[in-house]
Design goal:
It is built from 10 helices and 2 strands. The chain is mostly helical and 288 residues long. Helix 2 runs antiparallel to helix 9 and helix 8 runs antiparallel to helix 9.
Length: 288
């Protein structure tokens, strides 16, 4: 029976040496890494199945998903300026009493931080709106139409909060509504496209669950609403801190969403080779 060989340009997973023409059961001449190991790392075995084959329009939806997740991350950064403003000014119901008077040097750094985060959150709201209005493929069914509508509503509301009350947009009960809508708009795309990425399918510990982020957003909104309603300063302070921590977890999770969406986009635009495309009986051994 003829020996199976690598029949197309294929790099060693450890050193990048071109393994074309070498036997599958051999080792890389450059570093000694087993060729089977390189195949296992680079080839997606599930790509032979229909559920792991990119469908028509998948690349456009994957790009829209990535930009939507990036927009969620940037828009949610509005929590930072609002938190800094409330801690230093101490005004409003959603802030600890008194506030903090930072030294001049720290105050200048905080001002710069607020400016950068505010600009990033405004850019995120604009990018998210453009993603669902322009970049998202034209809906062909009712579910896709709902996804598009939820995304447009989410970033339109986020933009209204940011431009209407930039100092408190991040620490407001209304903050959780656009955050939740944005998550509901991206969740169907993760379910549809996630199977196309081997990394997304297998690295479950690194995959950010949308439902946990939704819980964090609703917790933040509920806690901040409670802080506005209760009359006891201690309870208001506790609720304010709980909402701030939940919002911080949301921002952290949004960063993971961007990474997850990048895995999917990379898998759709640069799909892993199929084993039958790389391994075959043809081709002589590659000379050293």
């Amino acid at each position: 029976m003829p020996e199976l060989r690598i029949r197309k340009p294929f790099q060693c997973a450890q050193c990048g040496y071109d393994l074309e023409g070498l036997p599958v059961r051999g080792n890389c001449p450059e570093c000694g890494c087993e060729i089977v190991t390189s195949l296992a790392r680079a080839v997606d075995g599930d790509a032979e199945e229909d559920h792991a084959t990119p469908r028509e329009g998948a690349a456009a939806r994957a790009r829209a998903l990535f930009f939507a997740c990036l927009s969620i991350l940037l828009s949610s950064l509005a929590v930072g300026p609002a938190f800094i403003a409330s801690m230093t000014a101490g005004g409003g119901r959603l802030a600890p009493p008194g506030g903090i008077a930072p030294p001049p040097q720290i105050d200048e750094i905080l001002r710069l931080t607020v400016t950068v985060l505010s600009a990033a959150s405004a850019a995120g709201a604009a990018l998210g709106l453009a993603t669902f209005v322009v970049f998202m493929p034209i809906p062909t069914d009712g579910r896709a139409l709902l996804v598009r509508a939820a995304g447009i509503a989410a970033f339109a509301l986020w933009g209204m909060l940011l431009f209407g009350s930039p100092g408190s947009a991040g620490l407001s009960p209304a903050w959780s509504l656009p955050a939740a809508l944005a998550l509901l708009a991206t969740a169907p795309l993760f379910r549809e496209l996630g199977t196309l990425s081997r990394v997304y399918r297998t690295r479950r510990a690194a995959r950010q669950r949308v439902d946990l982020m939704l819980a964090a957003a609703l917790t933040a909104g509920g806690a901040w609403a409670t802080a506005e309603l209760v009359q006891t300063p201690e309870l208001a302070m506790a609720a304010w801190l709980l909402g701030s921590m939940a919002a911080a977890l949301f921002v952290f999770g949004a960063g993971y969403l961007v990474v997850n969406a990048w895995w999917i986009l990379r898998a759709v635009t640069r799909p892993a080779p199929r084993i039958r495309e790389v391994v075959g009986e043809a081709g002589p051994s590659k000379p050293n």
